[in-house]
Amino acid sequence: VGGVNFSSNDRFENINSAAYFDGNDDYIDCGTDGSLNITGSLTVSAWIKTSSYGEIANKVRHGTGNAYDDAWEFKVISDGRAYFDVTDGVSDPHLFSDITVNDDSWQHIVAVFSAFENTTKIIINNTNFFEMDAPDFIIDNLSTPMFLGAAYRPDGDTEQHLNGYLDDIRVYSRALSDAEIDALFHENGWE
Asked: What SS3 class is residue 187?
């Protein structure tokens, strides 16, 4: 854990329940456990609160220079939209939301890659759905660490640091259904 403050309130105002990233050098290195080496369908779900931009979660293997051989990346880009990218080093389907998520209020954002339906999706607050077709491929076994709140670089450094809060981050090795995403959004009585 690189400088992350865990003494922040979550969306329910529970004390010490959300992670705060300062936008400068904070990140969480989740390591390289085999359970994180997802090679097919993938879902990333997170509650975020930011007025800025930066990485939410990612796992990449770099090729030549800063090019990605295989990767998945979920972040808020500089104009405030959500961005999700899955690549095998050849195909690179990247999806942008049409709405911003950096309004400094809690937002539930979910990214889904279905290797079986060949689609990528972003779902924001269970009401805004963005979807596109994806090429027929699977992600290769990534032996690199999964990072939260920053992007991992080939030299071992980090970049694109999140300035904001993350809570209840979940990564699944399958494409969640719309009903499962709805259940995540309403979990613990959130309306």
From this structure: helix
SS3 sequence of 25-41: CCEEECCCCHHHCCCCC
Half-sphere exposure of 52 (CA within 13 A, CB side): 16
- For 63, the token pair is 């090729």
Are the CB atoms for 27 and 168 separated by under 8 Å? no
CB atoms closer than 10 angstroms to residue 61: 17
Based on the number of CB atoms within 10 Å of its own CB, is 30 exposed (0-12), middle (13-18) or buried (19 or more)? Answer: middle
Q: Is 175 exposed, middle or buried (CB count within 10 Å of its CB: 0-12, 13-18, 19+)?
A: buried
Q: 87 pairs with which residues across the strands?
A: 71
Q: Looking at the predicted structure, is the pLDDT value of residue 63 above 70?
A: no
Report the Cα 146 to chain-centroid distance in Å: 10
pLDDT digits (tens, 9 = 90+) for 89-120: 666 678 999 999 999 999 999 999 998 898 99
Find the distance separating the first CA and the last CA of the chain, reported in whole Å. 31
What separation in angstroms does the CA of 41 have from each of 8, 131, 136, 153? 32, 15, 11, 24
CA angle 110, 63, 119 (to 5 degrees): 30
Three-state secondary structure call for residue 174: coil
